Amino acid sequence: MSQFISVFDMLKIGIGPSSSHTLGPWRAAQKWIEMLKEKEVLELVSSIKVDLYGSLSLTGKGHATDLAVLLGLSGTDPEYIPVDDIKKIIGGIKETNTLNFNNEKTINFSLEQVVFNKDFLPFHSNGLTFIAYNKELDIISSETFYSIGGGFVIQEETKASDANEINKQNFPFPINRAKELESYCQKSQKKISEIVLENELVLKTEEEIDNEIRRVWNTMYECMYIGCHTEGTLPGGLNVKRRAFETHKKLIKNASYNDKEQWVDAIRSTEVKFREILKWVSCFALAVNEVNASLGRVVTAPTNGSAGVIPAVLMYYLVIENHKADFSHIKKFLLVAGEIGSIFKKNATISAAMGGCQAEIGVSSAMAAGALTELLGGTPAQCLVAAEIAMEHHLGLTCDPIGGLVQVPCIERNAMGAIKAINAAELALETNPSESLVPLDKVIDTMWETAKDMHRNYKETSEGGLAVTVGLADC
Q1: Can you give the pLDDT at residue 163?
Q2: How many Cβ atoms sit within 10 Å of the Cβ of residue 255?
Q3: Left, alpha or beta for 175 (phi > 0: left; psi -120 to 50: alpha)?
Q4: β-strand 114-116 against 105-108: which pairing, if any?
Q5: What's the CA gap between 161 and 187, in Å, rounded?
């Protein structure tokens, strides 16, 4: 039996720059508050301490983990908080040394009460502990959570029975491995998107599914638009210049538009040369991850660090491959992408702190490759071949962010992952799946074995690779 993971678990809306280091800790704070309420001790809380461990501590400053915790403790939600409110809330805490706990009661609080411990907890490399004290300084609650990638948060004692288990009684197509997905497609003569939709219909109506997909795509679309129309440098100290603005300016030429609703038509109206196709795809990916790096709202796909790959590839299809594409194509793409991502999560990891960047950019590239292949007319088997090809050529990719920031080399890697996804889809369409030597399940297993063999320094700690050879002093 395996946990059912919805497409909307893999494609979540949140605030950047990291799903595991920002969104996850934010969600953990929310979960802790819910636990305090259930135990009816929230009103007794007089002071709070938060301990960050492992990767959350080592790269927490660059990933804004401490700020995410404060925002979660303040009672805000990453999916809906107005982005402009973030600076106001954090600024208020710094200035007053108080925290509006869950937006219900004011308690004394300083930034030093979020403690960066370099120690790793044995269960997972992304651990954090919330401790609450009463007026007598007695501990009334101490809970440890683990941010396991993609915004998913668990506790060590979480049991499989606590999750939504899949079985033939409640889901028509219980899927754990890629070979099962392919088998269902063959037997039912359905596309991957159709199989995934039938499973999702157990949880939501089709109208609800469509509304969620529109919300996800609109967030991606707005993110690309904002990134392409914002210039300057990114926050954090590296002084990384935003590149999407200048690239977009050159590519859009003299096309006219008044808002993002007219933007796609404006891009389609430009005469796109072969070399410019690659530039457009890169531009879309850079735009998303520049927004992500500046604490903007993005879609984890499957993580924030890899948020640019899927929207870039889908936008490529809309403005380059098929000018007549509509919502039905967007829906199919995101359904397929979400399902491929869930298979990776069930059998390996989507956390760079556990598996290096192969678990983020590699997975996102595989998701996008498989989804694009279906839209280009590929068979379900070819979709899985495309996902395999994309991941195969990301195996061993390390995570070594300079300064612990999701900027260098992270932003460019999204552009590379998007290009590889398109290339993988084209290769798969020319492939007879029966002649493919490496099945998707085997490359997923290999990715997980590679992740376990990878040295800890290359798993989002900023203690190896570019983070060391090119330090802050060199920037």
Answers
A1: 41
A2: 14
A3: beta
A4: unpaired
A5: 30
- Per-residue pLDDT for 164 more than 90? no
Q: Give the Cβ contact number of residue 80 at 10 Å.
A: 8
Q: How far is CA 136 from the centre of its chain?
A: 41
Among all chains, which residue has been given the structure tokens 């007089």?
46
Spatial neighbors of 426 by CB under 8 A, at least 6 apart, are none
Pairing mode, strands 126-133 and 139-149: antiparallel
Do residues 140 and 132 touch, judged by C-beta distance below 8 A?
yes
Beta-carbon contacts of residue 282 (< 8 Å; ≥ 6 apart): 247, 312, 415, 418, 419
**451 neighbors 356 (Cβ within 8 angstroms):** yes
> 2-23: per-residue pLDDT in tens?
578 999 999 999 999 999 999 9
Name 226's Cβ contacts closer than 8 Å, sequence gap at least 6. 287, 291, 296
Cis peptide before 174 (omega within 30 of 0): no
Residue 318 tokens, joined: 């809309």
At residue 165, the pLDDT reads 45
CA distances from 44 to 22, 96, 138, 268, 372 (A): 27, 21, 10, 59, 53
Q: How far apart are CA 348 and CA 201, in angstroms?
A: 26
Burial bucket for residue 433 (CB in 10 Å: 0-12, 13-18, 19+): middle
Residue 202 confidence (pLDDT): 95
The predicted pLDDT at position 475 comes to 64
Do residues 347 and 313 make contact, with C-beta atoms less than 8 angstroms apart?
A: no
Average pLDDT over residues 376-388: 98
pLDDT of residue 166: 45
Q: Give the least confident one: 66-70, 163-167, 428-432.
A: 163-167
Question: CA 277 to CA 247: how far, in whole Å?
Answer: 12
The pLDDT mean for the chain works out to 95
Q: What is the pLDDT of residues 389-404, one digit of tens each?
A: 999 999 999 999 999 9
Question: Exposed (0-12), middle (13-18) or buried (19+): which is 470, by Cβ within 10 Å?
Answer: middle
User: Mean pLDDT, to the nearest integer, of 163-192?
Assistant: 85
Instruction: Quickly count: other Cβ atoms within 10 Å of residue 60's Cβ.
Output: 27
Structure-token pair, residue 447: 């990715």
pLDDT at 25 over 50: yes
Give the pLDDT confidence score for residue 474 in this predicted structure: 72
